[in-house]
Design a protein that fits this description.
Elements lengths: L35 H27 L2
Length: 64
């Protein structure tokens, strides 16, 4: 997986965007193209929620 890309001594976070989404059953952001308007709305919701989780992680880790 992704860990093969880590450089020796790397101390950052290497993971998937949805790692920051509270629904741990989600593995990837789906292609919304074939889901009509609802598919796009679902993807936007997923991205917004995961983005909030990422921001909370950054703030918590760096005490911003």
């Amino acid at each position: 997986g992704l860990q093969k890309l880590e450089l020796s001594g790397f101390q950052g976070h290497l993971g998937l965007f949805l790692d920051f989404h509270p629904d741990s059953t989600l593995e990837e952001v789906p292609d919304p193209y074939y889901g009509g308007d609802e598919g796009f709305e679902r993807v936007v919701d997923m991205i917004e929620i995961a983005g909030q989780g990422l921001l909370a992680h950054i703030v918590g880790k760096h005490h911003v």
